[in-house]
Design brief:
The chain is mainly alpha-helical. It has 13 helices and seven strands. It has a three-stranded mixed beta sheet. The protein has a two-stranded antiparallel ribbon with strand order 1-2. Strand 5 (238-241) and strand 6 form a beta hairpin. Helix 3 packs across helix 9 (179-191) and helix 7 runs antiparallel to helix 9 (179-191).
Length: 301
């Protein structure tokens, strides 16, 4: 795929609702005609640029501001879903959040070791996602947000397929980056760890939880495992009823990261399942359906 196509792909990796998929080809083809000469690095360029690391480095990044903000505005609920008090965050915490994002952008990830890099990118993704939502709040879903506007933005929003993921909203080490760049061109190909999907939060109820503390290199493994267990064992991750499995659409959209088959997904799920869920999964080898909730993970008012 050309660099122009990879840069302007209109469909976020989490696919459009079924009713809109018929428009995808037309939109992509039209976008290519208009934007074929748009500047921008290809996905491979981004991956290559940010593949380097400093093995054994003692350099760390200060994420304490992000931890304070998360502890203040992320509200765990009794049913295991972490929600965000976006209204209070916008009123009292966004300035500090923007300062934190700016400090992260000033870092050189190549000076970090692998765990510290993972924490850096996951925190940057999550913090910038919240910042974007706050810029547009109140909204009912992150898919109501379209950065850059124009004809294609209008069409995407009108069919419920908007979102900020393709817009270049960050600059790190001289490279302009989108949220999709961080998730799909850095975290997934560089780290090759399915737990990436439990670390990045798209401000939606169907997404794995936004944590109540920042990732750090020193605590990364425990945090990623905790995130995996929390999601797998919540009904929005895996639900079993009448011998039939409903799984998060994450396991469909990114099946290749979980072994490339439903069996691979279930092998992964069993690794983190509680004894209760493992018992329900016993003898099951197929996933009957997938589901995802795009409503904003805002607190109930």
């Amino acid at each position: 795929m050309s660099s122009a196509l990879s840069t302007i792909t209109l469909v976020h990796s989490r696919p459009w609702p079924r009713r809109t998929r018929a428009l995808a080809g037309l939109l992509a083809a039209t976008a290519t005609a208009f934007l074929a000469f748009a500047p921008g690095a290809s996905a491979n360029d981004v991956t290559t640029k940010f593949s380097a690391h400093a093995a054994g480095s003692a350099v760390t990044v200060d994420h304490s501001a992000w931890s304070r903000l998360l502890a203040t505005y992320v509200k765990p609920t009794p049913d295991g879903l972490n929600q965000v008090d976006f209204k209070a965050f916008k009123a009292s915490g966004q300035r500090e959040l923007k300062d934190y994002v700016a400090r992260l952008e000033a870092n050189d990830p190549a000076k970090l070791d692998r765990p510290e890099q993972f924490a850096f990118w996951a925190n940057l993704y999550n913090a910038k996602t919240i910042d974007i939502v706050l810029d547009h709040y109140p909204v009912g879903s992150i898919r109501e947000i379209e950065i850059g506007g124009g004809l294609f933005g209008f069409i995407k929003k009108s069919v419920g397929a908007g979102g900020p993921w393709k817009a270049q909203v960050l600059k790190v080490s001289g490279a302009s980056l989108s949220l999709d760049d961080i998730e799909h061109n850095i975290l997934r190909p560089v780290f090759k760890d399915p737990r990436v999907h439990y670390s990045v939060n798209c401000a939606s109820r169907g997404c794995p939880n936004l944590g109540v503390e920042a990732f750090t290199g020193a605590t990364l493994e425990a945090q990623l495992d905790a995130g995996a267990r929390a999601f797998v064992n919540h009904p929005r991750g895996i639900a079993v009823a009448g011998g039939s499995i409903t799984a998060s659409s994450i396991y469909d959209w990114f099946q290749s990261d979980f072994g490339g088959s439903a069996a691979g997904v279930l092998d992964h799920v069993r690794k983190y399942a509680t004894p209760e869920l493992a018992q329900k999964l016993s003898g099951l080898s197929a996933i009957a359906s997938y589901d995802y909730d795009w409503k904003l993970n805002d607190i109930a008012r």
